[in-house]
Amino acid sequence: MTHEEHHAAKTLGIGKAIAVLTSGGDAQGMNAAVRAVVRVGIFTGARVFFVHEGYQGLVDGGDNIREATWESVSMMLQLGGTVIGSARCKDFREREGRLRAAHNLVKRGITNLCVIGGDGSLTGADTFRSEWSDLLSDLQKAGKITAEEATKSSYLNIVGLVGSIDNDFCGTDMTIGTDSALHRIIEIVDAITTTAQSHQRTFVLEVMGRHCGYLALVTSLSCGADWVFIPECPPDDNWEEHLCRRLSETRTRGSRLNIIIVAEGAIDKTGKPISSEDIKNLVVKRLGYDTRVTVLGHVQRGGTPSAFDRILGSRMGVEAVMALLEGTPDTPACVVSLSGNQAVRLPLMECVQMTKDVTKAMNDRKFDEALKLRGRSFMNNWEVYKLLAHVRPPVSKGPSSIHTVAVMNVGAPAAGMNAAVRSTVRIGLIQGNRVLVVHDGFEGLAKGQIEEAGWSYVGGWTGQGGSKLGTKRTLPKKSFEQISANITKFNIQGLVIIGGFEAYTGGLELMEGRKLFDELCIPFVVIPATVSNNVPGSDFSVGTDTALNTICTTCDRIKQSAAGTKRRVFIIETMGGYCGYLATMAGLAAGADAAYIFEEPFTIRDLQANVEHLVHKMKTTVKRGLVLRNEKCNENYTTDFIFNLYSEEGKGIFDSRKNVLGHMQQGGSPTPFDRNFATKMGAKAMNWMSGKIKESYRNGRIFANTPDSGCVLGMRKRALVFQPVTELKEQTDFDHRIPKEQWWLKLRPILKILAKYEIDLDTSEHAHLEHISRKRSGEASV
Q1: Strand 47-51's sheet: what is its strand order?
Q2: Is 166 a catalytic residue?
Q3: What is the pLDDT of residues 680-736, one digit of tens each?
Q4: Are 516 and 586 in a shared domain?
Q5: Which of 45, 72, 509, 697 has its CA 20 to 30 A from that of 625?
Q6: Domain annotation covers residue 776
Q7: Considering the entire predicted model, what is its pTM?
């Protein structure tokens, strides 16, 4: 990326106009996208217009199409729904309506349209684009527009952002609003769980999603449901018997409740709908259990967007503006979306076609095909769900075939650790292994605080925060002798270590120790779990998403307080050690003016620039500031120092307050993302472990001495991968306990632009137009 191109972003939009509209069902995070489109559009020199009430506003014109300003999108970030309104529009479906819409755009010189909505809304946009030149010639013939206006607006660029809680759009991993809808559902499931346990009830919960089972599927993984009904995978013919057997088995294993999740589009193999009432009647008739139905309805669309949806909306908004302004008459209408953590551009009609193919496959009862078209991540969720929910725990076989695997937590507590332990233990048992749990990390391994875990030992652990096994930061090196003795005593043949940076350094020490102690020559795998997200080898750690949401909620409350008092700047200190992930992402999600982090060194001149920026901001209608500081970003510029500096420099203009968030960031119930991520990581780790133990079995004992028998399981871009700990050494800055390269640093410019800094937008993170490959199940999957 050359220096010239840098400056190109600032002038890219000069003389252009962009209109943004939200259409179809609302979804949390749409406002974040609108805000980003407006601010980045203005940053590039373009004029940006709101279209109120979706396509209806586009057709009606007049006051529905208004120019947006920087301040007009302030405080939008934390609001659910869509502030500019959405409506189902019949008029736009008719050519006459589209003619009026074209007229309204041409008169204002708008040739770029950003549509945020579901597949219907995006298809409408594509039709509009393909007819554009015909519509213009009709308008010109009718004398409604001049020849000059027609030439100026000769082509229309369209970019779509998928806003839909259903996550039913092919080609996108996550649509805007899906994560927030899961947050609402899980809050309710957690609340229902407590009352169900009190009365030993069975609950049938019906969730939204139209013809897509994503919400239902992820919910059932995240709450350990007994059964899930989704349209893509109808149950087998004798499902009634199977379901009742499964429910009574759960009860006999000591559980006091049953949870059944039903997607609103659930059907059986013949295509007949299965309703929540049908299921309730079945359970009552056959088993006589006290059964209740809860239909969640529109609650799922409501409430504040989650941190993930705000960041997703903001990143997609930025990408949409870039795609529009770089568009030519020959670029197809595209959708910007996220694949793994990469922004991608996909041809809109390919995605729409594939989405229609799923519906067709389901109508033709080709359910396997439908499942494949939904993509890798969906299939993977389904596989893990089937394993955890549908396999009977085995009766123990003869001692020869059984292997013993131990599971432990290391480092500081992180939400989701328990979910990872649960799935590791249960998948281990399903494979016929003996599973031990170790309390208090490596210290417990040395002291022999080890016990065997059965199926119900980890029952109900998915939704519990913290670490139930207990966790310590102690490293193994100084107690190798005791650890070796216990490995022999308990016949441990594999270790699953769930934890943060110490889990990784502990793994490196175990590798070193293999030279001295044969007992340490057993396979081990590290599952990254820490709020700091600083484990080498993984883009995400279990627990980070929960911490991010906690920080976000607090910042929202603080912003509200600041908005009331006016002229107030808050300085908030976040955790993360030397890793600036939490501060940066929370800054993006909460709309901060600055986020100070260790990875991006700052000087007194930067601090001065930030103060001047805030002084300037107090002259606008937005009279408040929010500044985040990572706890170890600079040893001299402490939170107190920055607070004192701001207080002195802001005298008479604004007053400052400071908040250190502290350990609340490690607590709380895990978010749906962390529950699901931890569950899948646990399952994947245990599958790997069983294979590695079999590979290392020689002359009646386990001997694993190769680098690939000690790995970190991490998420890299679009796949879960096992990487030998020794190979990750070069990628680690051990003094500061962070990876040398971190993917999220490239999101920092977005944070600054959205806070109105005149900086160069490095668009080197270019999302090129990709085509959706028909993803075959053979690919590595997340």
Answers
A1: 65-67, 47-51, 17-22, 112-117, 157-162, 334-339, 342-347
A2: yes
A3: 999 999 999 999 999 988 877 889 999 999 999 999 977 899 999 999 999 999 999
A4: no
A5: 45
A6: no
A7: 0.93
